[in-house]
Amino acid sequence: MFVLVFISFSSFFAMGLLVIQLILYSFLSIQEIFIFQYILMIAFSIGSIDIYRYGIFYFIAFLAGYLFLHRIAKRNIFWSTFPRMQTFLQNNIDDLMLCIFLWVILWWRLGHVVIYDFGYYWSHPGDIFKVWQWWMSFIGGIFGVTIALAILARKKRLTTKELLLLGDLIFAILPFGIMVWRIGNFLNQELYGVIVSDRLPRLWYPLFSLFNDLNIFHVYTQVDNQLRVNTNLLSSFFEWLVLLIITMSIIRTRVKTKKAQPGKIVAVFLIGYSTVRFLLEYLRADSQLEFHGRFSISQRFFLWFFVLGLVTMIWRKRYKWFN
To answer: Where residue 205 falls among pLDDT bands split at 50, 70, 90?
Structure first.
């Protein structure tokens, strides 16, 4: 209980810093923003140990996942259809979150190393362990979640339906974690979009004005003074808000109808997220260097995720996994 209270306090403290920073940004000059940005990269220090803002954001995401699973376990919504799964949730949430945390952190880093810059890290293996460098890979994180669930499923002897149901719960809350990470990307001025005049030179003025008012176009002051596509905002809206509404709607339906429908959220998330990320790759500046032919490295993975989501959806219908 003490650990949970401490993490909750740290999370609210971090969110408070975030709100203060967003308010101050509207009053500061470009030079002042740069200085302020550098200072707030470190949220606080304990002795000589610096606690970085990004690390707190990660813990906020994992805390949300823990609280969500804890709430689901208390509701007993799977007791009539999947009693073993309900027992697993009630007795193994701590082990589940610890396993996911370790494997996700590991594969977040390894995903970037293996997928995006293997040649460099092959020549500089020591740089693999420089985790304070922000280079992580969401694709690697997905692999980490999959490995963690597979390990627990084997250890606890879960059936395929139970494994997919567990995956549904994890992927249902994942959009919230994506939102937290995108906030970090925006505040750290990274994963920004292409220059508007380069990619959208003939955009109809009223539409341009509307996008600018909605902050879809944004000047990343630490990068340059060019007006760029705010891919952080677009990612947050589609990858977080839209997907979270969809996944939570499915969860709410399950609570009301007492029908588990294993694998549905996994399929919907893979299809929805892959579609959004595939399209946004064309607007992200960092992704322009990844293109080999028609598609970037990331897009090739998202195509496979999309197909996997379709296969999961078809598999569910073929075997009539509606209960």
So the answer is: low
Q: Taking the domains of the chain in order of start, what are their residue ranges?
A: 1-60, 189-323
Q: For the chain, what percent of residues have pLDDT higher than 70? A: 80
Q: Could you count the other beta carbons within 10 Å of the beta carbon of residue 11? A: 19
* Integer angstrom CA distances of residue 90 from 5, 75, 105, 288: 20, 10, 25, 46
In angstroms, the CA 99 to CA 77 distance is 24
19: tokens are 């709100």
Helix (H, G, I), strand (E, B) or coil at 229: strand
The pLDDT tens digits for 140-153 are: 889 999 999 999 88
SS3 39: helix
Entry pTM: 0.81
**Beta strand ranges found along 182-223 (DSSP E):** 217-219
116, 163, 174, 269 from 148: Cα distances, Å: 22, 11, 15, 18
181 in Cβ contact with 61 (< 8 Å): yes
Collapsing DSSP to helix, strand or coil, 207 comes out as helix
